[in-house]
Amino acid sequence: MKKTNEKILVSALAGMTALQGMSTTLMSVCAQENNETTHESVMNVKMSQKDELESKLNDSKKNVDEKTLALDSAKGAASVAKKQVEILESKQDEKNRLVQQDYQVSYDVIMNELQPMLDTISDLESQINDAKKDLDEKISVSQKASEELDQAQKDLGLKKTELIELQNKLAGLGNVVDLKSKLEGAKEERDAVLTHLNSAQQDADAANAKLQDAYSEIGIADDALVEATFVYNEAVNTMAEKEAIVKEKQAIVDQFKDENGIEDAKTELDIAKGNLDDAKTFVDYKFSEMMNAQADYDNALGTYNRFEKDYENAKEEVNGAQINLNNANQKLESIQAEYDANQKEMEAKNNEILALNTQIADAQSEVDKAQTDYDKALNEYNSTSSPLEQAKKNLVDFESKYATELSRLTTGSKGYFESLGCSEDVLSVFKVDDSYQGEVAGYTHMGQAGDATSLENVKASIPYLREFNEIRKKEGLPELSVSMLMMAIAQVNANYAQVEGNHSSAYGTCENLAWGYGEAGTGASPFRGWYDYEKKQYEAGNHKFSEVGHYLNIVHPANTITGFALQKVNGVYAQEFGEHNSFTKDVILSLDEFETSFNNYYNNLKSVDAQHKALKDAVNNASGTTTKDDTALKNAESLLATKKNDLLNLQNQLNQTNSERDSLVVFATTKKNEMDQAKEDVDYAKVNVDRKKLDAASASEVLDNAKADVLAKENAKKDAESKLATAKQQVDALQATIDGLQDNIDNWDINKEKAKKALSIAEMDLRAAKEMESNAKENLLKATDAYNEAMKVCEDAQAKADVTSAALLKAESSFNEKNGVYEKVQNAVLDYDQSSSRLESVETELTEIEGHVDVLKKAQAELDQKIFGLQSEIEDLNVSLTNQKSNALPYEQMKSLLDDVMDRGTQVDLSMVENDQVKALLIQLSMDVDDLKGIRKDLDEAKNVYVEKYNLYLDAKNDLSNAKDENSDAMKALNEYLNGETKPETVTSTNENINTGVDVNTWSSMMSAMLAGLGVVGVLHQKRKEDEE
C-alpha cells in the first residue's frame, strides 16, 4: 500500500509540473501577443478570441488550485473526526468491559446468597408437588371411595326396603299351614268337579256322534228322494207323450171310420193343394224380402267396414298426433334442460363475476393501499436522514401515543381498576400508610411478578371464579358478580397471607384462604377442600364454622359479590364475599363482562409492551451509517407490483368470465327462441291431438251407428230368413199333408189297417208308461217317508246333543271356578315359599352390605384423615416456602434491579436495597452504565460529525473533479482553436521572433497536463475507496 501511494504521489507531482510548464508556455505566448502592436486587422480579431480562451484557461486553473486546497482541508477535518470516533470507540469498549465486569461481580454476590435459597425453594416446591400429587391421588381415591360408599348405602337402603316389603307380603299371605290346608280342600273340590266334567264330556261326545250319524242318514235319504222324484217326473212326461201319440193315432183311425172320409180327404186334398200354391207364393215373397234384407245387410256391413277403416285411420292419426306431441314434449324438455343448465351455469358465472368484482374492488383497495404505502415509504425514504434517527423518532412517537398504557405496565391490577374508572373507595385499598389497612397494603408489591396484583395472576383468577359460580349454580344459588373492590381486597389479603400465613381481617369481609393447591377445575383446585371436603363434613353433621366456614361462605345465599386472587409464588388463594353496599362507589361486573373487559385490557397492554420493546430494540440495533435503508421502500414497491399484478390477473379473469357469460347469454337466447318454438310446437301438437281425438270420437260414433245398423239389418235378415224357412216349412208340411192325403186316397184300406195297428201299438206303449208312472210314484212316496223319518231321528239327536252340551258347559264353568280357586291358593303357597326364601337371602345380603358400609366408612375416615394430614403438610411446606421466598425476594428484587441498572443506570431507585455490599456494587455499576451511555452518546455525535465531515470531503472531491473538467474543457477549447488554423501563421512585424501560434512543444505540455489531471483524479478515486473501506 505504501509503494502504491508513493507511485500515485509521483504521478500527481508530475502532473502538477506538467501543468506548471504548460502554464508558463501559455503565459509566454499571451505575453508575446499582448506586446505585439503591428498585426493586421484580421489578426486582431483572432487574437481577441485567443485571449478569451487563455483567460478562461487561467481562471479554471486558479479554480482547480482553490478546490485542491479545499479538498485538502476537508480531508484533514474528516481525518480528525474519524480519529475522534476511534478514540470514543476505544473508550466505549473499555467502559463496556468494566460494566460487564461490575455486572458479573454484582451478579455473583447476589447469587451467592440467592442460589441456596432458590435450591431450598426448589426442594420445597418439589416436596409440595409430591405432596399435592399424593393429595390428588388420595382425593381421587377418596372420591371413588365416597362414590362406592354412596352406592353401598343406596344398596343398603334398597335392601332394607325390599326386606320390609317381603315381611309385609308374608304377613299379608297369612299362615303357611292354613294356606296348605286350603290348597288340599281346593284340590279335592277341583278333582270332584273334574270327574263330573269328564262324564259330561263323554255324554256330549256320544250325543254328537249320534247326531253326525243322523245327518249322514238324512243325506242318504235326501239322495234317494231326489232320485225317486226324478224317475217319477220322467215317467209322468213319458206317459203324457204316449197319451198324445194315442190321441194322434186315434184321430187317424177315426178318419177311416167316417162314411164320407174319403170324400172329405179329397176335399181336404184340394184345399191343401190350394193352400200349397198360396204357401209357395208366400215363400217367393219371403224369399224376395230375405234377399232385400240380405242386400240391406250387405250394404250396412260394407258401410260398417268402411267406417271401421275410417275409425282405425282416425285412431292411427290420434296415435301419430300423440307421438308427435310426445316428441314435441321430449324436444321441449331437452331444450328446457339445456336452458335450465345454461341458466344455472350463467347464474354461477354471474356469481363468479360478482365475486370477481368484489375481489377486484378489494384488490383495487389493496392496490390503492399499496400505492399509498409505497408513496409513504418513498416519502419516508426521501425524508429519512438515518435509521437511528428514524428508530428514535418512532420510539418517541410511540411512547407519546401510548404513555398511559406504558405507565400502566408496572401498575398491575391498579392500572386496570383505573381504566374502569374505579373510585378512591377501590384504589385506596392499595394505599400504604400508618393505618392497619395501610400496613396490610404494604405487603403488596404492585404489579411485580408473583404478586397477586400482577396481570398474569389476575388473569389466572378467572377460571377459579368460573368454577365457583358453577358450584353456586349446582347448589341452585344465583351466580355472584365480580366486584373490583372485592378483587382488590382479595389481592392485598393474598399478599399478606403469603408472608404472614393468616387472614389479615382488615376489611370486614368474609374470606376463604388456602395454600398449596393447584389449577382450577382439577383435583388440585382449592375448591376440593373449601367445598367438596367441607360439604361432606357439613352433611355428616359437623356445623362448626371454624371447620366448615369455607363451604358456608361459598353457599351463603345473601352474598351477591365476590373477588378472587392468587399469589403464585407460594400458591396462596384468597376469595372475598359480601353484599353490595350502595354507599360504596364500586364497579361490579358479571363474570363474563369481567373476563371480556380484563382480557381486552391485558391483551392491549401486552401488545403495547411488545411493540415498545421492538421499537427499543430497533433503536439499539440501528447503526449510525448514512446509508438509507431502502428495505421498506423495496418491500412496498414489490408489494405494489404484486398487488397490481393480482389486480390485472383478476381483471383478465373477469374479462374471460364476462366473455364466457356473454357466450352463455347468446346460447341462452338461442335456446330461449328454440324453447318458445318448441312450446308452440307442443301447443300445436296438443291441439292436433285433441282434434284427432274428436275426429276419432266422431268416427267411433259413426262406427257405432253403423254397427247398430248392421245388427239391425242382420236381425232383419235373420227374421226374413226365419220367416222364409217357416214359409218353406209350411210348404213342406202342406206337401206332406197332400202326399199323405193322396196316399190315403190312393191306398185307403191299406192305410186304414196301418192306422189301427199303429193305434194298438200306441195304446200298448201308453199302458206301459202308466205302469211305470205308478211304480215311480210308489217309490217316491217311500223315499219321502224315509226322508221324513231320518229328519225326525236327526231332530231327536240334535235335542239330545243340545242337552249334553249345556251340561258340559255347566260342568266346565264349575271346573274353571274350582280350578281358579285351586290355582290362586297354589300361587299363594308358591309365593309364600319364594318370599320366605328371598327373605332369608335379603337378611343375609343386608348383613353383608352393612358390614361393607362399615368398612367403607372406616376407610373413608382414614382417607379423610390422610387428606387432612397432607393438606396440613402442604400448608406447613407452603409456609416454609413462603418464608424462603420472602427471604429470597429481596435478592430477586436486587437481581431484577441489576438488569434494570444495566438498562437505566443511575435512574434506578436503589434506596430499597438493604445489603450494603450489593448496594455499593449497584451504585458503582449504575455510574459506569451512565458513563457508558455518555460515551455512546458522544460516539453517536462523533459519528454524525464524521459522516458530516466525510460528506464535505466527498463534496470537495466532486468540486475538484468538476473544476478539473472545466480546466480540461478550457484546454481543449484553446487547443481546438489553435489547431483550427490550416498552418501556423507567421506575421511579419518589427520583431520576427514572435509567433502567434501554439507550437508542438506547447501542445505536448497540454497533453501532459491532461494526463496528469487524470492521474490526480485516479489518486482521489483510490483514496475515496480506501476511506470508504
UniProtKB/TrEMBL annotation:
Any Pfam family the entry gives: CAP
Chain ranges passing through the membrane: none
InterPro entries: CAP_dom, CAP_sf
Single GO MF descriptor: structural constituent of cytoskeleton
Keyword Coiled coil part of the UniProt annotation: yes
Domain of life: Bacteria
Coiled coil found in the keyword field: yes
Ranges in coiled-coil conformation: 43-91, 121-259, 297-408, 633-660, 703-772
A Gene Ontology term for the protein's cellular component: cytoskeleton
Limits of the SCP domain: 465-569
Keywords: Coiled coil
Name of the featured protein: SCP-like protein
Lineage: Bacteria, Bacillati, Bacillota, Erysipelotrichia, Erysipelotrichales
